[in-house]
Design goal:
Length: 134
């Protein structure tokens, strides 16, 4: 079979899988502004053909450029790099490990009883008395 030329490949995250045999993939990239030289994060959404409907929301997938299949769909899912469920399972295991470790109890606060409660009445009344005199 002959090679049809170099096809672009992009890596992105599935943001929608509601359509039949189609997924919406968000691809992010960083670009420096030509004048202000600030690094900007840009993202673009592509519709990609998923023949077996294997990709789900949150999956990291690789898409390859293909012939147009509809007005807006000209990409094909070539590989699922990482499933979204794998991240959740790892997070649950970490959460269980954190729960099993004993949490250090904070020491009870002992406030000095006489030092904080005693307020000099002259300092409070002196501000009030100066207002009354004017």
């Amino acid at each position: 079979m002959m090679e049809r030329g170099r096809r672009r490949k992009l890596l992105g995250v599935v943001v929608s899988d509601r359509m039949d045999k189609t997924v919406v993939v968000e691809v992010g990239r960083t670009v420096r502004h030509p004048k202000y030289e600030k690094t900007m994060r840009l993202r673009k959404k592509y519709k990609a053909h998923d023949e077996k409907s294997e990709a789900a929301m949150g999956d990291l997938i690789e898409i390859t450029e293909a012939r147009p299949m509809s007005k807006t769909k000209c990409w094909r899912v070539s590989a699922i790099v990482r499933k979204a469920g794998a991240l959740i399972e790892i997070g649950d295991e970490l959460a269980e490990e954190e729960r099993s470790e004993p949490q250090p109890q904070p020491a009870p606060e002992t406030a000095p009883a006489a030092a904080d409660e005693s307020v000099d009445p002259k300092t409070e009344d002196s501000s009030d008395s100066s207002r009354d005199q004017t």
